[in-house]
Please model this.
Amino acid sequence: MENAGLPFPAGEQVLTLMANAIEPIQKEEKQMEKSPLEINEPQMIKPTISEFSGKDTDAHLENVIASFLDTITHRRYRCLGYPVNQDFNYDALVQLLRFFLNNMGDPFIGSSFSLNSHPFELCVLDWFAKLWDIKNNEYWGYVTNCGTEGNLHGILVGRELLPDGIIYTSRDSHYSVLKAARLFRIKCVVVGTLISGEIDYNELKASILENKDKPAIINLTLGTTIKGGIDDVDLVLQILEECGFSEDRFYIHCDAALFGLMLPFINGAPKITFKKPIGSVTVSCHKFLGCPIPCSIIITRLKYVDLLSKEVEYISSRDTTISGSRGGHASIFLWYALNKKGFNGLQKEVEECNKKAIYLRNCLRGQGIGSMLNKFSNIVVFERPLDDAFSLKWSLSNEGNLSHVIVMQHISVKMLDSFVSEFAKNRSIWYKDSSSKKPPCIGEEIGAKNCACLVHKKLISF
Ligand SMILES: *Cc1c(COP(=O)(O)O)cnc(C)c1O
Model:
């Protein structure tokens, strides 16, 4: 695996993230009379729409919004299970909400609708192109309405290039990949995964060989949703070569929804680069970067896009995007965030999140709760809590026997401490009667050495 050189000249070397020592954590919430973590969720006023407006309307609307704000503020303190950064401030851009901005059409061509933010969009795309080593005159891309749309677009490009291709994707890949296969009616082979969540390379090779007469459209996930496994692009390229696939017979789409903005800032992490024969990369920008509106970046090679495009007279542009109207605000938020954080800011945020993830894993193990944390990852995987109400309270996302916390920027050590102690306390109640229910064994899912069930407990190292 090639080591990540830093994409831009960085002032200082990244600290080794995997150091065992956990320093006391920065950036705690301000001292309040009562910690928001100790307060129960406020009752929310149910929103309704009345048929007649009256003199009390404005006051009522204000109350409903104030109540909703209380609720979501409360929930943000317990938002642990999803890869969304809730720590951002776009107050400086609030005036933009007075405008409808629409970036419909191809950002490189523009459109006849003049209230667009295409210049910001292009600037953001250039930044990502540079990050992923593709020249300005060789790439094409756009800011989509969500990560799913990025995956749909990348896979569609692959299908247009290789119309009788088969999609290969792993069991742990995002559900949008299977959606793409269904929508575009492409035969899809789902490949098993390793314990880390990575695609099972041997199984992938066997499947490709089984369908040797058909081109391969391969979706690789750089940071799987549940475990944060990173499919190894180099290994897959090697497999393709071993199977006798020349570059014109495969297309690789890289789904880097969360890690696309993390791996480039970690020394030694696998590098996302168009210097390798990959076709497209997506990253969700409401995830690590943080944005109040869902959006993602898709970057592909310019030479492929002509295949997809069609002139549309009505908007004076080229029809290259999946969605028609595209909100123009997102691109400005992204431009703003990238400028405010800069390379060093992002690097620091990645480092802090990954450090806190190690802290969380250690705290869970300290309570006798088995857990797994992949290298370069901020996703801590552990057993699914017995009580769904507990999961809901902490916005955990569960799958089978597994649950996880994704340590994002808004998550403080206090939040993690509070979560772990509540989890441990509840667990001792759920499994009090040791003759009946027992904590699930998740050795098969996260590896025996990470599991703390009664059988595997002896193997775990605390
Ligand atoms: C979040 C995610 C996506 C995109 O999801 P959206 O909700 O459509 O933005 C794609 N792939 C992976 C691996 C993800 O985790």
About this structure: The first strand starts at residue 139 and ends at 144. The CA atoms of residues 120 and 450 lie 45 Å apart. Residues 1-28 have pLDDT under 50 and may be disordered. The chain is about 30% helix and 10% strand.
